[in-house]
Amino acid sequence: MKIIGFHKPISKKTAVAIGMFDGIHIGHKALISKLSEECNLKNLTPVVYTFSNHPFKEAKRKFLTTLNEKLYIFEKINVENVYVADLEEGLMEMSPEEFVREELVKTLNCHLVVVGENFKFGYKKSGDVNTLMELSKLYNFEVKVFNPVVKDGLVVSSSLIHDLIKEGSIEDGNNFLGHPFFTQGIIERGKGLGRHLGFPTANLTYENGNKLLPKNGVYLTIGNYNGMLLRGVTNVGFNPTFEDKKKIKIESHFLDVDYDFYGKFLRLYFIKRLRDELKFEKVQDLRNQVMSDIEETRRFFLKNPIEKIPLI
Length: 312
Known about the structure:
The chain has 312 residues and is of the alpha/beta class. The chain has two domains: 2-155, HUPs (Rossmann fold, 3-Layer(aba) Sandwich); 181-308, Riboflavin kinase-like (Elongation Factor Tu (Ef-tu), domain 3), CATH 2.40.30.30. The chain is built from eight helices and 14 strands. The chain has helices spanning 26-42, 67-76, 96-107, 129-139, 158-166, 170-177, 193-197, 283-303; strands spanning 2-4, 14-18, 45-51, 81-85, 110-116, 142-146, 150-151, 154-155, 182-188, 202-206, 217-225, 228-237, 249-254, 265-275. Strands 1-4-3-2-5-6 form a six-stranded parallel beta sheet, with helices on both faces. The protein has a six-stranded antiparallel barrel with strand order 9-10-13-12-11-14.
């Protein structure tokens, strides 16, 4: 996969799919597949146009994917070229026509644009699909409008998936993503409380403060460490038994592994929610509950071998 620098011109004739692509859910994947199909028919170079941060400053919801996570998924689904726009360099102030002329026509040599039907662009989102259609006549390119994907009676969208994961509905969110929700970062040493209880944990530092985390609770997870898949029980929260409320932590106990990966990169996939985060009066009660969580996790992976669970 080639990452094209902002404002770097392309000489080849391109077809461009534009969007935030947060989460890269099944609707996004279908749109990108449509882009590839059109490029094959018209002998064009495919380009996915996305943003380094959120295109609209008033948006308050957090990201399903950081930029690094998004680029990782693009590569895994065989996107050929990604153009990453930087919104700090005046892009938000461009009128719809300026955006089309400067970004699509002059920079990307665009001959076809593929967008969803709710696409908005230009200063204060003043342009829509109809605006793009009119400008395409002026600047001589084609527009393909892709209808939303509907699954289980619902229109698939990043905001829908965001709300599901925020509520802890990981399995439903994963269903619409088309892959397990994940976060990634560096494993750091904690206070050693898990090891003291007999369950050593790996503490994952998440990349970005704007990254969405699942609702506080305990999850069945899979860790990918250097290509090795690890069966995990992960707590997302404040560790209320020990009154640590400074910052939400992601602490994972991985089954049957040696904990020698501190300081290393790990990608953590959330597969299933096990329970809410609880405060225990006695440490032994916490230990008993963790043992129960581990047994439930073992039973799950006995029925669902880790190698057969589709990850991205």
